Amino acid sequence: MPFYPLQFEPILKERIWGGTKLKTILNKPITSEITGESWEISTVANDVSIVANGDFKGKSLNDLIEAYPNEILGTKVHAKFGKQFPLLFKYLDARQDLSIQLHPNDELAQKRHNSFGKTEMWYVLQADENARLIVGFKEKSSPEAYLAHLENKTLLDILDTKAVKTGDVFMLNTGTIHALGAGILIAEIQQTSDITYRVYDFDRVDAQGNKRELHLDLAMEALNYNTVEAQCFYDRTENVSNEVINCQYFTTDFIPLNGNLKVNKNNDSFTVYMCVEGHFELVYNGKTYSYQKGDTVLIPASMTDFQLNGQASVLEIYIS
């Protein structure tokens, strides 16, 4: 079977905090004024990606992995995760502040939800003037102090905020309390998990007047009360893969493409490219595939030699 770069139908999610940037900036086919998320590659239950191009069009990612696990996932990834796709790729548009939240680690998520934990990273594609996000505590906290501030509705007083701009990256390890702020558009790379513990939602209500569910008890054991250094700094050397994050769950590189880059890989892992600025082409086996800002493409592990051409900023993600 001749493999090729795979793109998928975006899975669009309305959110109380969503907006329209997924369409105006990333060209997603949204039809709602409150679309908060575009799930680009997913095997979360009931949200499994469907191939949008080529010979496999209409097939689910799970079906492809079932039939061709080593070719799609890679030999190392297949050996470690079986026929599970271990990562989830999204774009998020925060028109309003997201809830203050955190995610459980692998151990808690397995025990409580039979799921992976949710380690994730954010790459800022665009940020309005004065946009900020919340990540961690200003100073080391404790369960008692955290609960007191939560009850007094002063939680924001003890949380750390960061001003953001295009190109900023944040690594959110499990247990880190955080919230994406209004006016920020991000690419998100995370473990395959949809488990979020929401601890404060600014007392918002939906169109029916209902507040969203909070998960205060679940969050207590999962929360990291220490301060964190979440922001990641990285090189931007043109036409090379500049390492941004290398953790046990994924490696993310940043490629400032200005011309061409020959890529040679082994068959250990799939690779995903997220085009966060500009446009580029991928040349493989004499065929040319074109991508623009907002596109996400899965390179099956069996594709080991190809070339990237163009002027673009590209995130390159794989499992080391």
UniProtKB/TrEMBL annotation:
One example of a Gene Ontology biological process annotation: carbohydrate metabolic process
Cofactor note: Binds 1 zinc ion per subunit.
Active site per the UniProt annotation: 198
Domain Phosphomannose isomerase type I catalytic: 8-115
Residues of the Mannose-6-phosphate isomerase cupin domain: 245-318
Keyword Isomerase: yes
InterPro entries, per the entry: Carb_Metab_Reg_Kinase/Isom, Man6P_isomerase_Firm_short, MPI_cupin_dom, PMI_typeI_cat, RmlC-like_jellyroll, RmlC_Cupin_sf
MF terms in GO: mannose-6-phosphate isomerase activity; zinc ion binding
Any coiled-coil regions, as ranges: none
Pfam families on file: MPI_cupin_dom (PF21621), PMI_typeI_cat (PF20511)
Assigned keywords, A-Z: Isomerase, Metal-binding, Zinc
Binding site for Zn(2+): 103, 120, 178
Cofactor(s) required, per the database record: Zn(2+)
PANTHER family, per the entry: FRUCTOKINASE, TRANSCRIPTIONAL REPRESSOR MPRA
This protein's name: Phosphohexomutase
